[in-house]
Amino acid sequence: MNATFIAVLVGLSLVLAIFACYRLVVELGGADDTYRDRPPAGFRLAWPLVNILANTFAFALSEPRKQAYLAKLRRAGQEYALTPLQFFGGKLVSAVAGACMAVALASDDNFFLALCMGGGLGFIYPNIWLSDHTKKRNLAILKALPFFLDIVTLSIESGLNLTGGLQKSVDKCKPGPLMVEINRVLREVRAGKPRVDALRDMADRLDYPPMSSLVSALVQGELMGSSLAPILRAQSDQRRTERFQRAEKLAMEAPVKMLGPLIMFIFPCTFIVLGFPIAMKFLNSGM
């Protein structure tokens, strides 16, 4: 009788726990995805848990930190995929996953140290991912800029205005982060925002020196009423020069970067191969 009663209580506890988890996922695990982009793959894998932790620990995210996360998401092009709260929830999920992995691999003596280190690294990892994503996006923008500026220059020289030139460049250039930003500028202009303000907002979103320089030159040309074709051609030449300089810099950095692996891995193996016959000859000779 007692065993049956305990089994019934355990079953009811499990049912209540499952129902509580279900209600938690229904009430806190979802998010309004209207007019939102698809979240990154890592966030999609734990999307309900990300939203649960984001809504539960929203009080821990101060307003200045929220604005800082929003600026980083804008630079990475993830503004319409993740909110600052969801990004913070992803950091919490990553911290929990890192702590669990570290504890599983650590011994009992290092339990607390592994817990702290795994949780800390997991909490920092989304920031590293976002920074790398921003760098890749900026590099794609830098590579696409010269051809984009050439199309806009030719369009303006053929009689189109700046808005028409931007639209023509969107039609002719390959899809990419730069075209996403230019499309957004064109949508804002069609919605009624002044073109100068739309360009400045794009420069603020990207916070990338080549784009800031381009927008500054365009805005100055617009306000002064000067011809934009020479300005755009000079900007195109400058962007190409920057690309070549970046390639030369990476080529000069390659030998320095190879020095570490060369000393740590290749040199020891070379010394072992050269020294083994000599050592064996000394051992065989009785020395």
UniProtKB/TrEMBL annotation:
InterPro entries: T2SS_GspF_dom. It comes from the Bacteria. It is found in: Cell membrane. Signal peptide: none annotated. It is a multi-pass membrane protein. PANTHER family: INTEGRAL MEMBRANE PROTEIN-RELATED, PILUS ASSEMBLE PROTEIN. This is Type II secretion system F family protein. It comes from Ideonella lacteola. The lineage of its organism: Bacteria, Pseudomonadati, Pseudomonadota, Betaproteobacteria, Burkholderiales.
